[in-house]
UniProtKB/TrEMBL annotation:
<keyword id="KW-0472">Membrane</keyword>
<keyword id="KW-0812">Transmembrane</keyword>
<feature type="transmembrane region" description="Helical">
    <location>
        <begin position="101"/>
        <end position="130"/>
    </location>
</feature>
<comment type="similarity">
    <text>Belongs to the PRPH2/ROM1 family.</text>
</comment>
<feature type="transmembrane region" description="Helical">
    <location>
        <begin position="62"/>
        <end position="81"/>
    </location>
</feature>
<protein>
    <recommendedName>
        <fullName>Peripherin-2</fullName>
    </recommendedName>
</protein>
<dbReference type="InterPro" id="IPR000830">
    <property type="entry name" value="Peripherin/rom-1"/>
</dbReference>
<keyword id="KW-0130">Cell adhesion</keyword>
<keyword id="KW-1015">Disulfide bond</keyword>
<dbReference type="Pfam" id="PF00335">
    <property type="entry name" value="Tetraspanin"/>
</dbReference>
<dbReference type="InterPro" id="IPR008952">
    <property type="entry name" value="Tetraspanin_EC2_sf"/>
</dbReference>
<dbReference type="InterPro" id="IPR018498">
    <property type="entry name" value="Peripherin/rom-1_CS"/>
</dbReference>
<keyword id="KW-0325">Glycoprotein</keyword>
<dbReference type="GO" id="GO:0005886">
    <property type="term" value="C:plasma membrane"/>
</dbReference>
<keyword id="KW-1133">Transmembrane helix</keyword>
<dbReference type="GO" id="GO:0007601">
    <property type="term" value="P:visual perception"/>
</dbReference>
<feature type="transmembrane region" description="Helical">
    <location>
        <begin position="20"/>
        <end position="41"/>
    </location>
</feature>
């Protein structure tokens, strides 16, 4: 007995074909969106590759571009199949292509499922890459005259301004590194000299942050130097007052941005995995089982599986076993014969 069989008349077949045609062309539009998202995501990763130590993975955007192109091609062909299905002459020409097409669609849906999983699993890798990359970016912030790091300062400043963040975890990350180059320090100044000599590693450390950490929405002019020195500013207490710099770390801010993109892509991919293959299977079987193909008014029956679910699963397992045995026989037959001399 067929699995999930339904009765169809002419009106139902026409409605199914029209509905599937619209669904396939909607999937083509989604494919274009996926392709565009893949390019956009790739550009966004490239833009901030410096703060990710140039170790960012482009697997997801590359697969997304591939899936977008495949989606456009497969769904456009599916739309043509549905459009031509109600014409007996055109359907007879298309019929040999139905089975390979549906197998290809099943493989495509498996690829979509893999991409959905990657969209969620790769977020952990992005988080770790950002943590290490931002740590190094802050360390190399001062190296504006070092080849390969000339634009690190600009990239990090623009990141902090765009994402309204400061430091890796928070603004205190800037207290642990020397972010002003020695070429801009007056080593003849006693204060500067004492600060450098008092540090074990000979670094000029201070409780200050770059200008890009400042919050322009604060009513008070930005306090970016001597953040923990209450006496350096009038009516100021760093322990109780809300600082007029960004409190959120850039790792959290940039990761939230990338994870938002990847979650949106995952949701869109789940939407793309619609039941168009199931609908096409119903339509093709409903057209094949027409008692009189010359009479479009006659009723027919459509189904998802020709046999019951258990019978189909048993047949599939037996085919897999037969295929495995055939391979073993071939391996045994091709082994060289040992003859006694």
């Amino acid at each position: 007995m067929p699995f999930l069989s339904l009765k169809f008349n002419l009106q139902k077949r026409v409605k199914l074909a029209q509905g599937l045609w619209m669904l396939y062309w909607l999937a083509v539009i989604v494919g274009i969106i996926l392709f565009s998202l893949g390019i956009f995501f790739k550009i966004e990763l490239r833009k901030r590759s410096e703060i990710m130590d140039n170790n960012e993975s482009h697997l997801v955007p590359n697969l997304l571009i591939l899936v977008g192109m495949l989606s456009c091609g497969l769904n456009a062909f599916g739309g043509k199949l549905c459009h031509d299905s109600l014409d007996p002459q055109k359907f007879s020409k298309m019929k040999p292509m139905l089975r390979p097409y549906m197998l290809l669609c099943c493989g495509f849906n498996a690829l979509l499922l893999l991409l959905v999983l990657l969209c969620f699993l790769m977020q952990f890798a992005v988080y770790l890459t950002l943590a290490e990359g931002l740590k190094n970016a802050i360390r190399f912030y001062k190296d504006t005259d070092t080849p390969g790091r000339c634009f690190m300062k600009r990239t990090l400043d623009m990141t902090q301004i765009e994402f309204r963040c400061c430091g890796n975890n928070n603004f205190r990350d800037w207290f642990e590194v020397q972010w002003i180059s020695n070429r801009y320090l007056d080593m003849s100044n006693d204060v500067v000299k004492d600060r450098v000599l008092s540090n074990v590693e000979g670094k000029y450390l201070m409780d200050s942050v770059p200008f890009s950490c400042c919050n322009p929405g604060s009513p008070r002019p930005c306090i970016q130097h001597h953040l923990t020195n209450n006496s350096a500013h009038y009516d100021y207490d760093h322990r109780t007052e809300e600082l007029n710099i960004w409190n959120r770390g850039c790792r959290q801010a940039v990761f939230s941005y990338y994870s938002g993109i990847m979650n949106s892509i995952g949701a869109l991919l789940i939407f793309t995995m619609a039941g168009d293959v199931a609908g096409l299977k119903y339509l093709s079987t409903a057209l094949e089982t027409m008692a009189d193909p010359e009479n479009p008014e006659c009723e027919s029956e459509g189904w998802l599986l020709e046999k019951g679910f258990k019978e189909t699963l048993a047949d599939l397992l037996s085919k897999v076993k037969t295929f495995g045995r055939a391979n073993q026989v071939e391996e045994g037959g091709t082994s060289p014969n040992v003859t006694a001399t």
